[in-house]
Design goal:
Blueprint (H helix, E strand, L loop, with lengths): L10 H21 L5 H9 L4 H22 L13 E2 H18 L3 H9 L3 H28 L3 E3 L3 H5 L3 H26 L10 H20 L3 H10 L1 H6 L3 E3 L1 H10 L4 E5 L3 H6 L6 E2 L11 H4 L5 E5 L3 H13 L5 E4 L2 H10 L10 H23 L19
Parallel strand pairs: 3-7, 4-5, 4-6, 6-7
Antiparallel strand pairs: 1-2
Helix pairs in contact: 3-8, 4-6, 5-6, 8-9, 10-15, 12-17
């Protein structure tokens, strides 16, 4: 499903699961009191901070879950859609939504929750939201410059702050715990009937301590991608975990034979691959192997994945990384593309009087040079780079 690695949920089941999650989400909102406009607007008067607590809890839970899944290699963050940041537009939109929240008592998601349980004000708010959507669509061409003002692209908060994702997680958790403490203190002084008076103190303190410990662990957890890339490039690790080598002659034979279970993997930059590569080669950047984009190519154990680059060292790092990621039956082209070119494509005739085996080897290479050169010319345009569509979604509120 979506960005999960591997695809353990089929597209058909994905729709059913989405429906069930939507029902559960609405149920939780209603149980939290989000169908009541009075409870929601209590946030602005200091009488009820349930909204803030729920959203902080949801944010911390989702953030922690995503970070843990990412560190375990169970989610592909490259296909998770990140809303582009248009700073001025976001500020203006936030002001408009905040004003609507204060006046109407709902945000888009909670208005649907209120309407679903028969609240007339929720129904009116939903109708107003639909009118706003239609109006926005009609005015879109004229307000496009405002809508896309001050673009920062797919900016993430950790990037903007210059810290790691784990450090940001700890920071957000600390802010959330502090907000829980502060809002409870405010509620007790503003609203004598606040539910804060009935909070189980010891349970809340233990929960706060546990979530802070989680934040520290996330901040201290080494980045999985950087760790594996470093290990794959480490010469000592490569010697301790050698990758099988495939000779230029062997690769040439399988190319000429059209062996579908022999997969040449070109790990060079896309620009170099576009200029020339071996017949049937697939261009996979090492960093792309962390996601799900190429799993169908790299996962089948019966396929022999022969990694190559201009030289052998770059291919060795990529093949070692593939092995660390759990892919089987990986190999490296001995001598790299340079070696293949000299051995096969530019094969030189042996001296007279040499053993028959060397004469036969040259005859094979000469034939391979002709056939493979023809295949390279027929290669035509480069195969398009595969890109998995980013998964979009989220709460409208």
């Amino acid at each position: 499903m979506g960005p999960l690695v591997p695809d353990i949920i089929s597209p058909e089941l994905n729709l059913i699961l989405g429906l069930l999650l939507g029902i559960a989400f609405g149920f939780v909102l209603e149980q939290a009191g989000f169908s009541s406009s009075r409870k929601l607007t209590g946030l602005f008067y200091g009488t009820d901070f349930t909204v803030l607590r729920v959203f902080f809890t949801a944010g911390v839970t989702a953030m922690s879950g995503v970070l843990i899944l990412n560190q375990l290699g169970l989610i592909d963050m490259d296909v998770v859609y990140i809303n582009p940041t248009f700073l001025k537009s976001a500020i203006l939109g936030g002001a408009i939504m905040g004003l609507g929240f204060v006046l109407g008592g709902y945000c888009p998601g909670t208005s649907v929750c209120g309407a679903a349980v028969g609240k007339i004000d929720g129904m009116v708010f939903v109708l107003g939201g639909l009118f706003g959507i239609v109006t926005f669509g009609e005015l879109y061409p004229s307000i496009l410059q405002i809508y896309t003002a001050n673009s920062y692209g797919d900016l993430l908060a950790p990037q903007a702050l210059g810290i790691s994702q784990g450090q940001f997680a700890l920071l957000l958790i600390a802010v959330a715990v502090s907000a829980f403490v502060a809002t409870t203190w405010i509620e007790k002084r503003v609203n004598p009937e606040s539910e804060s008076f009935r909070f189980p103190r010891q349970a809340h303190r233990r929960a706060a301590a546990a979530v802070l410990v989680l934040g520290v662990l996330l901040a201290a957890w080494p980045d999985r991608k950087a760790n594996l890339l470093g290990k794959a490039a480490d010469a000592a690790y490569q010697r301790a975990h050698p990758i099988e080598r495939v000779t230029a002659d062997e690769l040439a034979f399988h190319i000429m034979d059209g062996d579908q279970h022999f997969v040449p993997v070109d790990v060079r930059e896309a620009a170099e691959f576009a200029k020339t590569s071996l017949p049937g080669a697939i261009n996979i950047q090492p960093a792309a192997m962390f996601g799900k984009e190429w799993r169908d190519v790299l996962s089948p154990e019966q396929n022999r994945k022969v990694f190559f680059a201009q030289d052998e060292a770059d291919a060795t790092r990529a093949a070692t990384l593939a092995s660390l990621l759990g892919y089987k039956n990986v190999a490296v082209l001995q001598g790299g593309l340079n070696g293949f070119t000299q051995t096969i494509l530019k094969a030189t005739a042996p001296e007279q009087g040499l053993p028959e085996v060397e004469q036969a080897t040259y005859r094979f290479r000469a034939r391979a040079a002709t056939e493979i050169a023809t295949l390279i010319k027929q290669r035509g345009g480069v195969k398009p780079v595969r890109r998995i569509k980013k998964v979009q979604g989220g709460c409208g509120s």
